[in-house]
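pinned: reference chain
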Amino acid sequence: MTRTIALGALLLSTLLIAAAYVGALVAAVVPPWTPWALMIGTSTIMLATMVLGASRARGGIGRLAIPFVAMFAVLLVGFGAALVMPIETVSTPLWLGLPPRAAVIRSARKARVPATRLTTPPRDNETRIARAITAAAP
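pinned: its structure tokens
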């Protein structure tokens, strides 16, 4: 049952993303619903893919429902906030050195779980770049 629902959500979110692309590319003026459809479709396709990967043969996803719903809410709130915020101009103040909408999305990305020891150590260039960015940040 869980897989069937996840597959249905995957199909509907794919169709929603496709509709957003069609609306943005075919119409002379981009309809106002296209970014919202893309935001909802992208967030839903991520959730449906995670549920498909975590579902068991004869059961649901169990206790993983709570983190999955939390992740879905964070995606919707983060992308929605970026869509609701006003468009930047030259005089718009920067947030953390970025335009406000980009800062909202970037801060949502940085809120991830820290890397474990199983990840590969950074290469020398990556270390230098990361140190330079950290030193330049306020």
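why pinned: The helical segments are 2-26, 34-54, 65-84, 100-110, 124-136. The chain has a mean pLDDT of 82.
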